[in-house]
Amino acid sequence: MAPRPRTAQSLESRRSRGTQSYRCRVCRGIHPLRKCKRFRKLSAEKRLRAVLINKYCSNCLAHQHSEGTCRSQDGCKKCGGSHHTLLHMHEERAPERTPQPTASPSRPSRKPVQPTRSHPRHSARSASRSSSPIRVAIERPRPEVSAPSTAVATLVRQKTVHILPTAIVVVDTGSCTFETAAMIDPCMAVSSIDRSLAAAFRLPFTSLGDDEVCSATLRSRTGNFKLEVVLKLDPSLKIRTPIRALSDSTRAKFGDIRLADEQFHRPATISLVLGADVFAKLIQPGFLKLEDGLPVAQSTVFGWTVSGAVLES
Prior knowledge:
The termini are far apart. Residues about 15-20, about 90-100 and about 100-140 have low confidence and may be disordered. The chain has helices at about 10-20, 35-40, 45-55, 120-125, 150-160, 195-200, 250, 275-280; strands at about 160-165, 165-170, 175-185, 190-195, 205-210, 210-220, 225-235, 240, 270, 270-275, 285-290, 295-300, 305-310. It is an alpha+beta fold.
């Protein structure tokens, strides 16, 4: 039986599939990711973000695996972890050199005195042995300032309720979407998510040294805002805010603005924190302070967040 002739269309289709399979998802060039010049110029953190967002294998940087799992035995050449060397982020710092004391050219060198935790009376006695005529001032004990009594501290806690800035966000996993509360905290360096919540959302994660990370798309419920974010998995990320419910009158004070979390005055457990790595992309111009004793409101891409101390009788 004679071989079936290949048409020009089938050859072109096969060539196109081969080209697309090796097309770099970072610069759209025809090369593997590990040879991409734009990718290699990025910082390790941005490389990791590019790998997770574009769904590359974090171990070998392959665009896909035929069997679904990576069979490469090559780990990181710097730490031995199960990730590619280009994704290594724990840089070793050179030991800092302690400056050696140098003698002044006009004065004779003296042996540096080692600091001690001796009693003040002992220090004064040691100083009096010096040959130079130096007057030693004997410090009198200062009166101790007493801490606030337990009753006062308890009273303050009973009247003041602290609120952390939260927003209801849409987490897009690619196949499903979920709504969950997130806290916006610029004091946290890396955005994080509780492990159990990531498992409930079925977010695929990868190991990076001693840490595990996953990626997801965050969306606003009302606008067109969309953000690709890398989240660090935390085994126990559960933040309670507020510690007790606020009055409906406090909630009504913020009825004229579009809130990011309409139930900010009700206690809830937060398992998703958006940190300093994405903070600048979430905050918008707009700050609202109504009156003393009430929290403040800050405009964000998700709406207005409410935070601060509430003084309730």
